[in-house]
Specification:
It is built from eight helices and six strands; from the N terminus they run αααβββαααββαβα. The chain has about 260 residues and is mainly α. The protein folds into three domains: about 80 residues; about 100 residues, no CATH class; about 35 residues, no CATH class. The strands form two sheets. A three-stranded antiparallel beta sheet has the order 1-2-3, with helices on one face. A three-stranded antiparallel beta sheet has the order 5-4-6. Helix 1 packs antiparallel against helix 2.
């Protein structure tokens, strides 16, 4: 099993190399101070040990950097894998969920519309049968008119049966309130929910949603260059040698462009 070097190993190797170099300096200082007990062999041996310690420190630093990069690449691969797994069916999943929303909203709107139509029909039938409009003289409509009445101030809604009053319901207002309730849920980011103001037609709604996270293949046809500013330029027809030189461009291979 290969040894994995860490930052702690690098620090330890640096300390060892520094100590070895310090000992060489100490021996040299002793010679210059007149200490005849220090030999040439001692200094030479210590210098050799110092160089070796320095090389070991460089080796340790290099291996630690490689280990760090290997861990980084492992994490990058993990991110890439997670992205690919998410993108694999996200458009299809979201489309199905949104269709459930549309169906639920349609069912709600249809049910409310049916009730509103019934109210309008009941009002019309009351009028056709001579039921008088509601007045402030009666809290409950009179018995001779079936305890029924309607509000003359409105054209279609507001009817009464006994003590029960019924008015038209605007389904859109409730749908808006549901959306606002969703936005108030913890963890939901409003700025991410409303990021596009472009109006989509109903026909393009699910097609647009299905297209998210899809991978659009970049054409390998044509010619690729790196411009003077570093940007990659993709053209159908190749530049001439004079144009490449004049604009400071570099011809790129497909491997250089796509990796």
């Amino acid at each position: 099993m290969a040894v994995e070097y860490t930052d702690a190993d690098v620090r330890a190797a640096d300390v060892e190399a520094a100590e070895a170099q310090a000992l060489v300096a100490s021996l040299e200082e002793a010679v210059m101070s007149g200490d005849e007990s220090v030999t040439h062999e001692q200094i030479t041996a210590q210098e050799s040990l110092g160089r070796f310690a320095k090389l070991r420190a460089e080796f340790t630093r290099k291996k630690a950097a490689q280990a760090t990069e290997a861990r980084r690449q492992e994490q990058l691969t993990k991110i890439r894998t997670e992205m690919e797994e998410c993108a694999g069916d996200s458009g299809e999943r979201f489309g199905a969920l949104l269709l459930d929303v549309e169906n639920a909203v349609t069912t709600f709107v249809e049910a409310v519309q049916t009730r509103n139509d019934d109210i309008a029909d009941w009002r019309k039938r009351m009028i056709d049968l001579g039921v008088p409009a509601k007045t402030s003289a009666n809290i409950v409509p009179p018995a001779e008119h079936g305890r029924l009445s309607y509000n003359p101030q409105t054209s279609v809604g507001d009817i009464q049966a006994g003590e029960r009053e019924m008015s038209l319901v605007a389904s859109g207002g409730y749908i808006q309130r549901v959306l606002m309730k969703v936005l108030e849920k913890p963890g939901f980011k409003r700025e991410q929910i409303f990021t596009q103001t472009t109006a989509l037609s109903a026909g393009a709604l699910y097609e647009d949603l299905a297209a998210i996270d899809t991978s659009e293949a970049i054409s390998r046809e044509g010619h690729f260059y790196r411009g003077a500013g570093g940007s990659i330029i993709h053209v159908d027809k190749p530049y001439t040698a004079e144009e490449i030189k004049r604009h400071g461009m570099q011809k790129l291979t497909l491997a250089q462009v796509f990796g």
